[in-house]
């Protein structure tokens, strides 16, 4: 497409369309044309669209809705995401980790997945990552639909879209009108409150949410946690979490303004970075604030434009208490401010084609990485970086016939300090019938090493910098088949083969320090099989099986389960107003000391009136002892996963 | 907490766009988002507007009635019965319900007959005799009907089943990602002497035409 449209011409057209705006409508469009356009943009009422909405998409998409998440009692996006095929979550009890397609590397929490809120890119400026648990700026209560696009998608989304893209579509005021409150209590002195208010009138819509969460956390016991303050290796009261977030979204016609702000404080019981176990005060504090203004235009003749601009700020504060003769507090102060501008232009002037052209710019101001002792003040690292990024992309959706379509795209990304990255994409979609789709996909993904991987340096205490790191890339071929069975069930099969090159991995280089290095090639392949449906009036089920294998020249990759089996079931109980839900998750072995695991969660709900719900939820119902693999920065040989958690909560709509 | 230099304070970050939006709120004039509609109603409404962009061959002047023939049963056929006595571009719509049975070759007759009921399970396609559509300007067909060859002049076939535009149906409505789209067989339209406005073609998901890739 670019040959038809020299770049300068594209920009002239873009400018012309933007300037034309609402003024140059086509010469007196008949009323019927406007009505017809409005009708073509109108949604069909009913449930079947949920099952078939992704059939025509030029990607492998799975999604979970608000209704399912609410019935399962989900609090965080992580819980929603974990229901989707191929995802496996872990935690080092400081941060969560997200695995997908057999990939979850030590030292990488989630930089290979692009996370977004209504299309706003959440991944931060220094670590280039976003985590879905209590680290995330919003909670599950505010998410209308969580979508996972599996596989590399850098031709559309740019960097970080290596394993996939997660987008949280948030509630509008009209989806949750009025005041709503959910308040809960749970094990380990957990307290939760989520408040929201929705309002809409005509083209104006407002949604505001406030979430508060705190928990004292579990007591850990491990031989590696033995120390003067914990002689028996038992650490109590040091695993707490405190979280609050505020989210607001206002719409007026095609305009949208979103504001978000959150803070999470996580106490650390795992004695990271050789801090003495059992000593309080070692903790991580994360803050994230963003504002985005977006405009989505309507079609004006053959053109449609969209613009979004955003400002973001995230900080990470690590506080480490060393109980030496004189108590010593070491700190990490890391953070960055950044601004982004995205523009997109769609053109449908060529019959059977829809062309999308886009440009993005992102500037990171003052990304700082500091490591210092508090008193006496000694800096080991005090680094300030700026970074500019830009990208242009073009995509053509070509309808070859009623049954066949071909989507092709290219994107060029420039990141300051690196060679341009070229990401092509091709997707052939065939619809043998109205309810069935067959897809052949070819995609590229890339990620430039983040500023922390390149430059973090605490004088060899934990990490040695590597400014010479090169971007990592992935190339994928995938085949997907999806079919709606009847109007209420769906089955999907996804086969893929990934080829990573220059994979960035955290490699131990001495007794205590590690360094990020480019490794040789990594090959992986796998399949996801997912089925979901409705039985009778309100029995809803979903299950998926993933099989995967990832290996490098050194052998099979660590923290890569060969199989994952998960699912959930929502069903009404014989008594009126009562319902139950079950969800389960099973993972294969991930390390020699991390055996396969199976956990089952259960929810019992009583809804006497549509406005009130009382729910009892038990996570890890059988109190199974399970583990996550170790990370390089702690003495623990493996991390214990959460034991049985019991929660009760009350929801009220006013 | 001693945080180093901050280029813009958090509060300003949040307030600036808010100010911008409040400015825009004063000037913006936009329409409300449409409420979702039942699928069949949406299809009928889209079809009604789409037909306003079709010109029939000269012999069908504005004074003539527009004969709408429902040759297959189905929810959309039922919905289209509501069009009786409406006016499309100044032409009075006259509803003709044709009977199509699954007997060999199928029989069809104009008038007051009722739409034949469908039986469960796959059926062989019904070959539709040209006589069955004599005088029709718009004919609705289902997935199980074989259109007569050559197509009668001045007849626009409409349908809402997957794959129909490959079988000569001029305007086929389909659900796609929670919305309704339509495909146009422009070749079939031209063979029938119908003129379809380019504005309508631009809104189509797929236009089948000679010589186009």
Report on this model:
- The complex is a heterodimer of chains A (654) and B (213).
- Chain A has 654 residues and is mostly beta strands.
- Chain A has a single domain (52-653), classed as TonB-dependent receptor, beta-barrel domain (Maltoporin, Chain A, Beta Barrel), CATH 2.40.170.
- Chain A is built from 7 helices and 36 strands.
- In chain A, the strands form 6 sheets. Chain A has a 22-stranded antiparallel beta barrel.
- In chain A, a hairpin with a 5-residue loop joins β20 and β21 (421-433).
- The radius of gyration of chain A is 25 Å and the shape is globular.
- Chain A starts with 6 loop residues before the first helix and ends with a strand.
- Residues 1-29 and 47-51 of chain A have low confidence and may be disordered.
- Chain B is α/β, with parallel strands linked by helices.
- Chain B has a single domain, classed as Response regulator (Rossmann fold), CATH 3.40.50.2300.
- Chain B has 5 helices and 12 strands.
- In chain B, the strands form 3 sheets. In chain B, strands 3-4-2-6-8-9-10-12 form an 8-stranded mixed beta sheet. A two-stranded antiparallel ribbon of chain B has the order 1-11. Chain B has a two-stranded parallel sheet with strand order 5-7.
- Chain B is globular and about 40 Å long.
- The N and C termini of chain B lie far apart (64 Å).
- At the A-B interface, α2, β14, β15, β16 and β17 of A face α1, α2, β9, β10 and α5 of B.
Please render the helix and strand layout as text.
The complex is a heterodimer of chains A (654) and B (213).
Chain A: H1 7-20, H2 31-40, H3 48-52, E1 60-65, H4 66-71, H5 77-81, E2 88-91, E3 96-99, E4 113-117, E5 120-121, E6 143-150, H6 154-157, E7 164-170, E8 178-186, E9 190-201, E10 204-215, E11 220-221, E12 234-235, E13 241-252, E14 255-267, E15 283-296, E16 303-322, E17 328-347, E18 353-373, E19 378-399, E20 404-415, E21 421-433, E22 436-447, H7 451-455, E23 472-485, E24 489-501, E25 504-508, E26 514-518, E27 522-535, E28 539-552, E29 555-556, E30 563-572, E31 578-587, E32 597-609, E33 612-619, E34 627-629, E35 638-640, E36 645-653
Parallel strand pairs in A: 4-7
Antiparallel strand pairs in A: 1-6, 2-3, 4-5, 6-7, 8-9, 8-36, 9-10, 10-13, 11-12, 13-14, 14-15, 15-16, 16-17, 17-18, 18-19, 19-20, 20-21, 21-22, 22-23, 23-24, 24-27, 25-26, 27-28, 28-29, 28-30, 30-31, 31-32, 32-33, 33-36, 34-35
Chain B: H1 10-27, H2 39-51, E1 54-55, E2 66-70, H3 75-80, E3 87-88, E4 91-97, E5 126-127, E6 138-141, E7 145-146, E8 156-159, E9 171-176, E10 179-185, H4 186-191, E11 195-196, H5 198-203, E12 206-208
Parallel strand pairs in B: 2-4, 2-6, 5-7, 6-8, 8-9, 10-12
Antiparallel strand pairs in B: 1-11, 3-4, 9-10
